[in-house]
Amino acid sequence: MKNNKRWSIGVLLFSLLLVLAACGKVSDTQTSAANEPEKIKAVFYVNGTLGDKGFFDSTERGMQKAGKELGIEVKTVEGGTNQADWAAGVESLVSSKKYDVVVAGTSQMVDIAKDIANRYPDQKFIFFDEIVTDVPNIYSMLYSQSEGSFLAGAFAALVTTSKELKAANADKVIGFVGGMDVPIINDFKAGYEQGAQYVDPDVEVVASYIGDFANAPKGKELTLSQYNAQKVDIVYQVAGGGGLGVLEAGNALGKYTIGVDANQNPLYPGSVLTSMLKNIDASVFRALDLYKQGKLPFGTNEVLGIKEGGVGIAKDDLYNSHVPQAIQDKMIEIEKKMESGEIQVKSILK
Length: 350
Description:
Elements: H1 2-35, E1 41-46, H2 55-70, E2 73-78, H3 86-95, E3 101-105, H4 110-119, E4 124-128, E5 138-143, H5 145-160, E6 173-178, H6 183-199, E7 204-209, H7 216-229, E8 234-238, H8 243-253, E9 256-261, E10 272-278, H9 280-293, E11 301-304, E12 311-313, H10 317-322, H11 325-340
Parallel strand pairs: 1-2, 1-3, 3-4, 4-5, 5-11, 6-7, 6-8, 8-9, 9-10
Antiparallel strand pairs: 10-12
């Protein structure tokens, strides 16, 4: 009987130890979960749609990279092309209080961002492709499109005067197709003209505007007109999704084009000879990384040029295959002079 009693007491003690151990484990897990920092949540509001193979798609790559490499929880919302919807779209994201930081951009969104940021002072914003001033909860960055476009203009002038490229005609005329006739697009144009004039003062620039950044058929129509009626042999597109029609027109006629924002050379190899790069993906990733570290200087802005790696031209295998070596060498020379400050590019925005 005593043995049975001892055995029962032993079982009871053992069971008690198991319960205490189990409680200890739950407590440790709860403590660990409590100490684990919450993920930063960032949302990218697209004042348009993805699929432009350039501007917005580049931003999206930066967001996705931040998600994978920085552990940030990212989301993208496409606002569509109706500008009347954009303000309500951004405010719905902000008022939900789900996101630590809102990523948005373009000159068309400046007033919307400023208004909402002022009414929601606790919400942080990362704004790209335009300078926003005097708003303490917005960090903004502008890419020196005039510098990048200077390279595009110099390249276009070298192409139109080349004797090695079969589709380059005898006339020194190059084209420009912009999305809208607005200051930021005209800053691209100004840089493009300066680059062309640097190479050859006799080069003429023909410019057309689509009227928006989505109408690819209109972009194609304007470009075909430049090729057929105005003796253009290379066109630089600065028109977002509408610019895809520009590139299509160049390929259809066997002429040359220059892409924008991202490397669009692979879209029509041998027709798109290079692309002016706005390294939006890298800059958005950099801003989110600084935000995560608590080092992003809200209330300030930066201009990212060639020296800072903010802009450049695409030099991939296709560029090496289709662009004559003499033009490649000249472009390297021009870039070095810009980096050193020997070549100064004027921006109409300053």
